[in-house]
Design a protein that fits this description.
The complex is a heterodimer of chains A (about 150) and B (about 150). By secondary structure, chain A is an alpha+beta fold. Chain A has one helix at about 1-60, and strands at about 70, 75-80, 85-95, 95-105, 115-120, 125, 130-135, 140-145. With about 150 residues, chain B is α+β, with helices and mostly antiparallel strands. Classes of the chains: A alpha+beta (about 150), B alpha+beta (about 150).
Chain lengths: ~150, ~150
């Protein structure tokens, strides 16, 4: 009886240590998952905010030559003609990336000549009223006021 | 000799028990610290998300204010009803009745010698706490007395 009790004590201790170590591992695993989800949310937030802020700045700086919305490779395409009238900046979605391309006037979009701005899954543009543009990237909306009514497009 | 061995065994068991208690206490301490750190990380993440949304909402409201002729027009551009000065938005910044973010607009016109300055105070709240405030201004030109 006594021998059985003596054998039981180390087994109980080993089990207790095992439970405590398992608790530590579980806590570390939970922390890892939490860190990953926080990090992913931060990256997504930064990407969308950066994209919208960049688009707002681009439109505000380049809408003097007029703003047009055309059909791009995947949905809407924002066209910002330069004031000189020879070139235009096209912003459109292609293979999960928002692309920016400077091309001669009336040229068709060519993603191989474009520069990627950011990774987004959706992009749309529409006029809001007479003097505002509504930009939507990954479901988030940004407004930009335009210098000319209707985007100034002829 | 037998008695001496028994005493050593008791001391050894006591030491093992103390060791186990210490281990459990350290684990409890580590767990407490880690849970606090995790909770802090979640809170900071939410605060960052709120601030991002608030800045974007304020900028949208400022752009709408510049694009519209009056404050009602700005509210309409933001997706609200005419006459409303308080609007709610969800996390995607889309107008929603029970949205987390509340945007308020207040307009002040200041007459100057060369016309009128229109100032709009845009504030964004979440759970009653002010997150961000922006005050865009625009020149409205001469206002006739007639």
């Amino acid at each position: 009886m006594r021998r059985a009790r003596e054998n039981f004590t180390p087994l109980f201790q080993v089990l207790t240590y095992g439970v405590l170590i398992a608790a530590i591992l579980l806590l570390a695993y939970g922390g890892g998952r939490l860190y990953r989800s926080v990090s992913e949310a931060r990256t997504r937030n930064e990407a969308v905010r950066g994209t919208l802020a960049y688009l707002q700045s681009q439109v505000a700086a380049n809408d003097a030559g007029g703003v047009r919305i055309e059909s791009g490779p995947e949905g809407d395409m924002l066209v910002l003609p330069l004031e000189s009238g020879d070139y235009q900046t096209m912003i459109y979605l292609s293979e999960g990336k928002l692309m920016e391309e400077l091309s001669p006037m009336d040229a068709r979009p060519d993603p191989t000549r474009a520069q990627a701005i950011s990774d987004v899954s959706s992009f749309s543009v529409s006029f809001a009223g007479d003097r505002a543009l509504k930009l939507c990237a990954d479901g988030r909306i940004a407004l930009v006021s335009l210098h000319a009514e209707g985007g100034g497009a002829e | 000799m037998k008695r001496k061995n028994g005493r050593w065994r008791d001391v050894f068991r006591l030491a093992q028990g103390v060791q186990l208690i210490c281990f459990a206490a350290i684990l409890l301490l580590i767990s407490t610290v880690l849970v606090q750190v995790y909770a802090g990380a979640v809170r900071v993440s939410q605060e960052t998300k709120d601030l991002n949304a608030a800045v974007q909402l304020c900028r949208n409201a400022a752009e709408a204010f510049y694009a519209a002729d009056d404050l009602d027009g700005a509210v309409e551009l933001l997706g609200g009803e005419t006459g409303a000065r308080e609007m709610h938005f969800d996390a995607e910044l889309v107008p929603a009745e029970d949205g987390r973010y509340m945007l308020t607009l207040a307009e002040v016109c200041t007459p100057t010698q060369a016309g009128e300055m229109e100032q709009c105070t845009v504030q964004v709240y979440a759970e009653g706490m002010l997150l961000y405030e922006l005050t865009p201004e625009r020149y409205c030109g001469e206002v006739s007395d007639a």
